[in-house]
Task: inverse folding
C-alpha cells in the first residue's frame, strides 16, 4: 500500500510544481518584453500606419525642445547648443547628441522629443503593462519590477534634415545586469516568432545588438527598422522609419553611434 501511495503522490507534486512555474514564466515574459516601455508596439500593432503618421508629421511640423535656463532642474547644463539635446543628468548624457544632418524630431507620446523619466515612474509604467493579468500574476509582475531596480528611462527623437527619416532612441538603466541580458534575449525571441520581419542591418562592433526590418510593402508603404541592444546595465531600443528609398545601413549607423556613445561616455559627439 505504501508503494502504491508513493506512486500516486509523486505525479501530483510534479504537476503542482509545473502549474506554479507556468504563471511565473508568463509574468516574466510580460515583464521582459515590456522593457523598454512601448517600442515594440509599432511592430506588434500597425507599423505601417504608425510610420506614415510619424514621418508625415515630421515633414510638416517638428517640435523642438529648447532648454529654458529659468526652469532648469538642478545639475549640469545641457550641451552648449540646445538643438543637440539635453545632457544635464547622468542618464541623458548616455543619449546620442543630435548628429550632423539631423535635428530633434517629433514628440514621443506625451513626453516630448527629448526627455527622461525617473526610475519610479518608469517602473510604474512597466507595471501597468500587466493590467490584463490576473491579480496574482500582477502582484508577481510588481515584485519582479521592484527587483530590477529600474534607475531611469530616457528617450530622444531624431529627424533627418531632408525629412526622409524619423528615429527614436530609448535607453533604460537597471540595477540588475542579468535582467538587461534576459530582456534582450526575450525580445529577440518575440520578434523572431513573428516570422514576417526581414533581417535588419548588422551593427558593427556591437555583438549585443540585433535589428529587424519591417515587412516589405508596396511603393507607398514606409520602410523601417526596429532594433534592440544593451551595453552593461543599459538597455537600448531603437526604431527608425522613412520614405523609400530607405537606407537600413544609414539607420544602423545611427544606432552604432548611440552604442559607441554609451561605451565612450566621456565623449560628446
Result:
Amino acid at each position: 500500500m505504501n508503494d502504491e501511495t508513493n506512486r500516486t503522490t509523486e505525479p501530483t507534486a510534479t504537476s503542482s510544481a509545473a502549474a506554479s512555474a507556468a504563471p511565473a514564466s508568463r509574468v516574466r515574459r510580460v515583464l521582459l518584453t515590456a522593457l523598454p516601455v512601448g517600442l515594440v508596439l509599432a511592430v506588434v500593432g500597425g507599423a505601417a500606419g504608425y510610420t506614415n503618421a510619424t514621418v508625415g508629421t515630421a515633414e510638416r511640423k517638428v517640435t523642438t525642445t529648447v532648454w529654458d535656463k529659468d526652469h532648469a532642474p538642478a545639475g549640469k547644463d545641457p550641451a552648449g547648443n540646445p538643438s543637440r539635446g539635453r545632457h544635464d543628468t547622468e542618464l541623458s548624457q548616455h543619449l546620442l547628441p543630435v548628429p550632423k544632418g539631423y535635428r530633434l524630431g517629433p514628440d514621443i507620446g506625451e513626453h516630448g522629443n527629448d526627455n527622461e523619466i525617473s526610475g519610479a515612474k518608469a517602473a510604474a509604467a512597466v507595471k501597468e503593462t500587466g493590467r490584463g493579468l490576473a491579480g496574482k500574476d500582477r502582484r508577481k509582475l510588481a515584485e519582479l519590477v521592484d527587483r530590477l531596480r529600474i534607475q531611469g528611462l530616457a528617450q530622444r527623437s531624431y529627424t533627418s534634415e531632408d525629412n526622409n527619416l524619423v528615429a527614436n532612441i530609448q535607453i533604460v538603466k537597471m540595477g540588475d545586469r542579468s535582467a538587461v541580458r534576459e530582456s534582450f534575449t526575450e525580445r529577440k525571441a518575440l520578434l523572431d516568432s513573428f516570422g514576417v520581419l526581414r533581417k535588419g542591418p548588422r551593427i558593427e562592433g556591437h555583438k549585443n545588438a540585433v535589428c529587424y526590418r519591417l515587412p516589405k510593402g508596396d511603393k507607398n508603404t514606409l520602410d523601417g527598422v526596429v532594433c534592440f541592444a544593451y551595453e552593461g546595465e543599459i538597455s537600448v531600443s531603437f526604431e527608425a522609419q522613412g520614405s523609400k528609398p530607405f537606407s537600413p545601413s544609414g539607420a544602423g549607423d545611427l544606432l552604432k553611434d548611440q552604442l559607441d556613445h554609451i561605451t565612450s561616455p566621456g565623449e560628446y559627439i
The radius of gyration is 21 Å.
